[in-house]
Each structure stands twice: as structure tokens, then as C-alpha cells.
Amino acid sequence: MTIFTKIINKDLPANIVYEDELCLAFKDINPQAPVHVLLIPKKEIPSSQQIQKEDQNLMGHLMVKVPEIAKRLKLSSYRLVVNSGEDAGQTVFHIHIHILGGRKLAWPPG
Ligand code: 5GP
Questions:
Q1: pLDDT in tens, 12-42
Q2: Closest ligand 1 atom to Cα of 12
Q3: 3-state class of 14 per DSSP?
């Protein structure tokens, strides 16, 4: 269990921008861009390395929700990031899609 489970269970407050039965999107506590939202499945999948065949519809659901959430956040351009594993910068082991936007983003990332 991670801190994100506490947010899902409303045991920890978060600025929620979207929620349904399968997923939750909330503002990152330490934003790296003017808009920085985390989109997570409610199912506890630690990282992309642990996505299984049975998660196909769930992960597809998250991707389908991305443009809807981006529209809600008034983002026309944005970047999706899924840090997967410690060396990739993952710190919370409940899979999450970072939705970053609101400024020009440099490439490549660090
Ligand atoms: P990661 O480094 O694992 O890809 O991303 C984890 C993200 O979760 C970080 O951007 C961090 O700021 C965010 N985060 C960590 N703890 C909390 C929290 O308690 N609330 C919110 N809203 N975001 C958090």
C-alpha cells in the first residue's frame, strides 16, 4: 500500500480533478509545471513492469480519459510521463501517469 491508496480512500486529502470507479486524477503536491496532474488506476499496480494482460481494459481506460482530463485542465499540449523503476525516477510504487503542461517543455528529459 502506498500514499496513493490513502488518497483513493480519502484518508489523505488531494485536489481531485477527475474520478470514476476505475481511476482517479489529482494535482501533484510538488508540481513540475503550471499544470501537473497524476492519473492513477484505483487498482494497486506498482509500476508499468507489473501490468498484466488482465489490466488491458483498465490501462486502456486511463488512456481514454487522458484527453478528457486534458480538456478539463484546458491543456492543448501536454506531456505524459510514466516513471517506471527507481532509476527512472519513480518514488511512489503505485503506477501513475504524470500529465504535465502549461509551459513549453524541453526535450530530451533529464
Ligand atoms: P514519481 O516520482 O513516482 O514518478 O512521481 C510521484 C509523484 O507523486 C511526485 O511527483 C510527487 O510530487 C507526488 N506525490 C508524492 N506524494 C504525494 C502526495 O501525498 N500527494 C500528492 N498530491 N502528490 C504526491
A1: 999 999 999 999 999 999 999 999 999 999 9
A2: 19
A3: coil
pLDDT surpassing 90 at residue 110: no
Domain ranges of the chain: 3-101
Pocket around ligand 1 at a 6 A CB cut-off: 3, 14, 26-30, 38, 83, 89-92
Catalytic status, residue 96: yes
Label each residue of 45-98 as H, E or C: CCCHHHCCHHHHHHHHHHHHHHHHHHHHCCCCCEEEECCCCHHHCCCCCCCCEE
Calculate how far, in angstroms, residue 96's C-alpha sits from the geometric centre of ligand 1.
9
Domain 3-101 CATH assignment equals 3.30.428.10: yes
Residue whose CA is closest, atom 1 of ligand 1? 90
**Residue with CA at minimum distance from ligand 1 atom 18:** 29
The rounded radius of gyration (Å) of the Cα atoms in the chain is 13
**Which run of H or of E encompasses 36?**
strand 35-41
